[in-house]
Structures are given as C-alpha cells and as structure tokens.
Amino acid sequence: MEASLPLVLLLACTAGATFRFASYYADHMVLQKEPYRAIIWGFGDSGSNVMLRLSKNRSVMTKMAQIEENSEIWKIILDPVPQGGPYTIKVHQYIKEDVSNMTLEDVYFGDVWICSGQSNMEMTVSQVFNASKELEKASNYPLVRVFSAALIQSGVELQDLGGISLLWSIPTARNLGHGDFSYFSAVCWLFGQYLFEKLKYPIGLINTSWGGTPVEAWSSKQALKECGLTEYIERSPPSYLDAGPREVSVLWNAMIHPFVNMTIQGVIWYQGEANTLMNTDLYNCTFPALIEDWRKAFHEGSDGQTNRYFPFGFVQLCTNRHVEINDKFPRIRWHQTADYGYVPNKRMPNTFMAVTIDLGDSESPYGSIHPRDKRTVAYRLHLGALAIAYGERSITFQGPYPQKVQVNETHRLLNITFEEHIQLRHRDNNTFEVCCSENGTCSWKPASIVSSSSHSVTLQNAACSNGIGGLRYAWSEWPCDYKLCPIYNLQALPAPPFITFSHSNPAWIGL
Ligand SMILES: *[C@@H]1O[C@H](CO)[C@@H](O)[C@H](O)[C@H]1NC(C)=O
Ligand SMILES: *[C@@H]1O[C@H](CO)[C@@H](O)[C@H](O)[C@H]1NC(C)=O
Ligand SMILES: *[C@@H]1O[C@H](CO)[C@@H](O)[C@H](O)[C@H]1NC(C)=O
Ligand SMILES: *[C@@H]1O[C@H](CO)[C@@H](O)[C@H](O)[C@H]1NC(C)=O
Ligand SMILES: *[C@@H]1O[C@H](CO)[C@@H](O)[C@H](O)[C@H]1NC(C)=O
Ligand SMILES: *[C@@H]1O[C@H](CO)[C@@H](O)[C@H](O)[C@H]1NC(C)=O
Ligand SMILES: *[C@@H]1O[C@H](CO)[C@@H](O)[C@H](O)[C@H]1NC(C)=O
Ligand SMILES: *[C@@H]1O[C@H](CO)[C@@H](O)[C@H](O)[C@H]1NC(C)=O
Ligand SMILES: *[C@@H]1O[C@H](CO)[C@@H](O)[C@H](O)[C@H]1NC(C)=O
Ligand SMILES: *[C@@H]1O[C@H](CO)[C@@H](O)[C@H](O)[C@H]1NC(C)=O
Predict the structure, then answer these.
(1) Is 450 near ligand 10, meaning CB less than 6 Å away?
(2) Which of 330, 364, 388 is the last residue of a domain?
(3) Would you say residue 10 has pLDDT above 50?
(4) Do residues 188 and 277 share a domain?
(5) How many domains does the chain divide into?
(6) What's the CA gap between 126 and 110, in Å, rounded?
C-alpha cells in the first residue's frame, strides 16, 4: 500500500535548487543490507521537509526528515532491509508550496566494501594475468556493482566527494578496464567476485585509492597524533613509485571522510610500499591507528550503523627487487601485523591479512613493484573475509605460524613446531636465518632445512659458534620464488614472515 503524501503546502517561495543526493548515491548502487540500517543523505533547502519512499513494485517503506533552519543537509536512516532488489528510491522535498523530487533506480541491498590503498589496489582488471578472460567474465556478475572515487586531495575534511571516476555501474568489460591504473581495481573486483560466488547476494565495491601514497596521507590528524606525528617531511620518491600526494591527512580528508556517513560492511586495504621510504618503523603504530580511527569515524558518521569494529582486511606487501641488504619490506610486513606476525591480534582485532610474499613478478610490464597475479591475492583475502566478516570460523585464511622453537645447542639444530599441519614445498638453505650472537649483537646466518615432519621442520646452522639468539623467516624483500616458499599449509597458504628472539619469547626452549 502506498503511504499517502504528507500535505506540506505552505506559502509560495523559491524552488528547491539545492535539492540533491550526496554524490555517491546513484542508480545501480548497492546499499548496506540488514542487520545494519542503510543511510541516505543529501542536500536541500533549509527548513524543508523531506520524504523518502523505498519501493519494489509497491511501496516498502516511507521515511520523513526535516532540514533544520540553519542547515542544508537531510539524512534518512532506513529500517534494516534484507538482501535483494531492484528497488526504487524516490525522495520528495516540500518547501512552502514547492515540491521537488528525485529518484534512484535499480538499487540493491547487499554488502558494501571500500577498497583503498596504493597502486597495487589501483591496478585494473585489464593489467592482471588472464586479463581478457577476467574481463570477459565481468558480465556474469551483474549484482556486483562498482564505484570509483576520483583522485582528489584536500587540506580540510570534505563532507562530500570532490569528484567521481566511475559512478555506480553494472560490471562490463569496459567498466573494468579503463586503461592502466585507472578504474576498476582488480583486487577489489576479484575480492567482490569471490564474495558473490560464496554469498550469492549483491556486493557493492567502492574503490578509493591512489598510487605511491603513504599511510600518513590516509590518516586523520587525530590518528597521526596517536603516533607522535604532527608534521610531514618531504622526501623525493623513487620513480617506480609513481607517487601521489604524501602530505598528512590529504586523502583521508578528500577520499575517505566523505564516505563515513554511509553504512558499510568493511574495508580492504593494499598499501605500505610508500612507507618503505618514510616513517618505516612507525608503521606498527600508524597502521593500527588508521584502522582504529576509520572504525570510529565510520561508526560515528553513520549514527552507529556501521559496526564499531567493522572487518578490516589487508594485503601484506609482496616483493619488489632481489636485493640482499634492504630490510624495509620485511619491516613493513612485520609492522603491518603490529609486530605480531599474524592477525587478528590484541592490537588489531577483527582484521584479516593475505600473505603475498610468494607472488612476485619480475617480468611485470608495470614494474616488479606491480605483480600481476591479483587473483591469488583476492582469493587469499576473501578467505579472511569469510572467517572474520562472515563468521565461518572453521576457514583457514593464514599460513602456518610457529608455536615453539627448540634449540639443540650442541648440534646447532633448531626444531620449529607448528600447530597446523604443514607442507614443506621447497627445502632450501636460506629462507630461515638464525641470529648468531657475536659480541652481544646479532649476525644473521642462513640455516638449512635438514628434515621435516607433518608439524615441524628442523634447521641446522653449523657456523653459529656462540649460541643462537634468534630466528627469522622470509626476512627479505624477495624471499621466495613464485608460489615456492618453504612452508605452506594444506590449503596452499604460505607461512607469513616472522622474527623471534630467544630472550623475549617464551616459545623458545633450550635443550
Ligand atoms: C517488479 O519490478 C521489476 C523491475 O523493477 C520487474 O522486473 C518485475 O517484473 C516487477 N514485478 C512485478 C510483480 O510487477
Ligand atoms: C516529480 O517531479 C517531476 C518534475 O520534476 C514531476 O513531473 C512529477 O510529477 C513529480 N513526481 C511526483 C511523484 O511528485
Ligand atoms: C581507484 O580510485 C581512484 C580514485 O579514488 C581512481 O583515480 C582510480 O582510477 C581507481 N582505480 C581503479 C583501478 O579502480
Ligand atoms: C615499532 O617498531 C620499532 C622498530 O622495531 C620499535 O622500536 C617500536 O617499539 C615499535 N612500536 C610499537 C608501537 O610496536
Ligand atoms: C557525517 O559525519 C560527520 C562526522 O561524524 C558528521 O559531522 C556529519 O554531521 C555527518 N553528516 C551527515 C549527513 O550525517
Ligand atoms: C590463468 O588462467 C589459467 C587457465 O585457466 C589458470 O590455470 C591460471 O591459474 C590463471 N592464472 C591466474 C594468475 O589466475
Ligand atoms: C621436533 O618437535 C616435534 C614436536 O615437538 C617432534 O615431534 C619432533 O620429533 C621433533 N623433531 C626433532 C628432529 O627433534
Ligand atoms: C642446500 O644445501 C644442500 C647441501 O649443501 C644441497 O645439497 C642442496 O642442493 C641445497 N638446496 C638448495 C635448494 O639450494
Ligand atoms: C667481535 O669481536 C671480535 C674481536 O674483537 C672481532 O674480531 C669480530 O669482528 C667482532 N664481530 C662482529 C660481528 O662485530
Ligand atoms: C641434539 O641433537 C642430536 C643429533 O640429532 C641428538 O642426538 C641429541 O639427542 C639432541 N639433544 C637433545 C637434548 O635433544
């Protein structure tokens, strides 16, 4: 039954010139489904009344709002709507005797994910392995809808987006391949595709990312203050980083803050390369602080509709160059986990991670910093989403992590025990390294894998004469050949890199 229109016919006055939706509400969009309440907001004339009607052939819901005398913003919080569609949303504004209306067509309810980060998030479907096949398949997923913000920076927090690259669209080969590093993001798209295949309901994907940008640009001033960062020191980036803005908060302000007023399911993030060049050892603070800050802002901005601890997934850095001495990649990878080595953990609740140290691509025409196997990245990431965001607790989304390190000093043997069943895929002599204590400091020496069982590997290092003080795994910029790290689990997920010291870790047991 149609609800009857309220009668708001007062004195004659001007027309509703400013009446519009916020920029990211458009035809073909996906709004967040139940149990959350989607929010729709926009601009209008001070003092007017606004009525929204959601309908699917017939009216489903009618909501009213008022624009305050000193405001130009209306906002409507819908009742929870189950997955499905297509819906039509009609909004009327009544001011004096003037009525204006506007409509959104082909709107679905499902899960909305924001995808953000640097150029590895920006890489498009047309740039990845099997691109033509991936593009061809696009039209098989008409209920995965895509939206891309434009590249804008701002010194102050913007209320609405300053520009849009791709309005909400039904995926087509064209919409997914607008040229290199242009919409639409391959990691975001393939992640959404995997989710759709599993969940069988609409998925809305929002890409808002920019190549060569450090975490500081995506963080609010408040988040940076938590880490003692107040000002930015300009440093010229190497050419491979095709750098976007690096000033503090400018992308938070223009490309994230405008979204905090909509209800979302979660975020995925692929960033960190730029922080191998600046504030590397602050990343164990800045990254967890960004997550906490975004969660708080989206929760508050949506009047509590977006989960305060919404799922946050991220890609651990892949590889760049075959260099021995530079340990900035492993440090960022470690800091991406707040120095735990795995997620979720105490400092990073409700997070999930895709390990990608084994997906290097030195032949990539876009430079080896831009590996082309994004399908495996998205596959690993979606396993984390299923476990963390969709409650499939039995799903393993991370490779094996060591439980115990036993040292047999007399024979310079280390026995590393894993809780999970492991698969030794590559028996090598240098992915594991031991810290030989020398004059009170560490000298890292390769350790050979000499044997293994279903739950353990045994290493040997013959050269460590003064005792073994630590152990690290995959601690280099390019630790493994393609899908050929030493340790995987039975689901073919690689063990994440780790570093551990005997003096600070109770998992070490001397023999
Ligand atoms: C409801 O609307 C959709 C499109 O909006 C249309 O495809 C469908 O046939 C309609 N169903 C009925 C029962 O009218
Ligand atoms: C919506 O506005 C258009 C003109 O902009 C008008 O023709 C139409 O009747 C209006 N619809 C309703 C339901 O008010
Ligand atoms: C992602 O979004 C940025 C701006 O947010 C846009 O410029 C870029 O083209 C988009 N890239 C992809 C791959 O979607
Ligand atoms: C971050 O890492 C650095 C370098 O390893 C360390 O000194 C610092 O204590 C760590 N900070 C946090 C918050 O974990
Ligand atoms: C959006 O969120 C910000 C930050 O919480 C808040 O100040 C603003 O009023 C919100 N706008 C709307 C339309 O809800
Ligand atoms: C590319 O397609 C082939 C054939 O379907 C498949 O075996 C391979 O795994 C695909 N590669 C990637 C990276 O998706
Ligand atoms: C390593 O430890 C595991 C479990 O603690 C044990 O089963 C295995 O026999 C040990 N291997 C060696 C070589 O000591
Ligand atoms: C590791 O060292 C052993 C003994 O020197 C050698 O036989 C083996 O080929 C090496 N493995 C690799 C992967 O290099
Ligand atoms: C440790 O000290 C000895 C003797 O002073 C010196 O020969 C050796 O090079 C030092 N080793 C390191 C790693 O500094
Ligand atoms: C140390 O390793 C050697 C050689 O494998 C073995 O014979 C010995 O029993 C081990 N010692 C301990 C305390 O496990």
Answers:
(1) no
(2) 388
(3) no
(4) yes
(5) 3
(6) 26
